Design the sequence.
């Protein structure tokens, strides 16, 4: 999939364009994107980064990084994506000016969006407005009960299975493998210490079962209280994996929350519990 950051980077040709922020690319977003892919020609997405709410002064914990969002869009069959850098200037554009700059200049023949999509100054633009100024449009009904906001609430509450149902895939944690304390290796369970983007929503502290790089993975999110930690860590133990992951970006699926963090009476008791966590990870079922 080609990724552009200005309309000039895209060839002018008739396009079916899905438009939206699409944070998390959940099942509602997938319905919108799939409608553009099925309609053709040249299925294209116009999306925004950073998140508009962040630029407008609201806090928002993202369900996916831009890189991951683009990967998920490519998996849906999108040929090209235009990433619009969302700024106060973009927010202040009248809807007609936005449409001329970002839709007309790439020859959007059909514009597809969810029924709640709004754009332009004061969120005054919608698909009926685009229809009035000459674009063909397709309004995709909302999928009942599905929204990025609801998914954020479920993840924040630790209900990752319910969140996965709305996402259409497991909840993920993503990050770059960095040097940690190397304590896991001394216990017999070497972990990859992930540094995640600060804008990402991370599930509550606890021990999770999941998968990464096609390996079952036990994941610890928290401060490691047994050793008196104070800084949040995301540590992934990839079962039956051998290799060096330092510096690599990895995406870890979270399938099930196994337990809370805990302080143990001894290191031997801790090791016994980790062994049980590993066994539970082997038995876990992908949501």
Sequence:
């Amino acid at each position: 999939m080609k990724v552009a950051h200005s309309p000039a980077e895209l060839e002018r040709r008739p396009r079916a364009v899905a438009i939206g922020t699409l944070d998390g690319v959940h099942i509602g977003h997938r319905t919108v994107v799939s409608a553009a892919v099925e309609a053709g020609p040249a299925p294209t997405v116009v999306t925004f980064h950073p998140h508009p709410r962040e630029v407008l002064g609201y806090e928002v914990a993202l369900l996916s990084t831009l890189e991951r969002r683009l990967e998920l869009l490519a998996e849906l069959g999108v040929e090209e994506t235009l990433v619009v850098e969302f700024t106060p200037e973009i927010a202040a554009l009248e809807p007609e000016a936005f449409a001329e700059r970002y839709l007309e200049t790439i020859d959007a023949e059909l514009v597809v969006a969810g029924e709640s999509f709004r754009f332009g100054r004061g969120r005054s633009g919608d698909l009926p407005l685009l229809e009035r100024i000459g674009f063909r449009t397709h309004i995709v009904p909302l999928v009942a009960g599905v929204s990025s906001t609801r998914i954020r609430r479920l993840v924040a509450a630790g209900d990752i299975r319910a969140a996965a149902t709305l996402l259409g895939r497991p909840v993920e944690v993503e990050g770059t493998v960095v040097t940690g304390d190397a304590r896991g290796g001394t216990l017999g369970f070497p972990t990859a210490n992930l540094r995640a983007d600060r804008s990402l929503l991370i599930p509550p502290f606890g021990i999770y079962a999941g998968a990464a790089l096609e390996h079952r993975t036990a994941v610890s999110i928290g401060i490691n209280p047994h050793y008196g930690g104070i800084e949040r860590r995301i540590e992934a133990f990839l079962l039956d994996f051998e290799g060096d992951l330092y510096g690599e970006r990895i995406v870890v699926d979270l399938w099930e929350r196994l337990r809370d963090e805990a302080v143990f009476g001894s290191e031997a008791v801790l090791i016994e519990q980790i062994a049980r966590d590993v066994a539970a990870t082997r038995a876990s079922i992908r949501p």
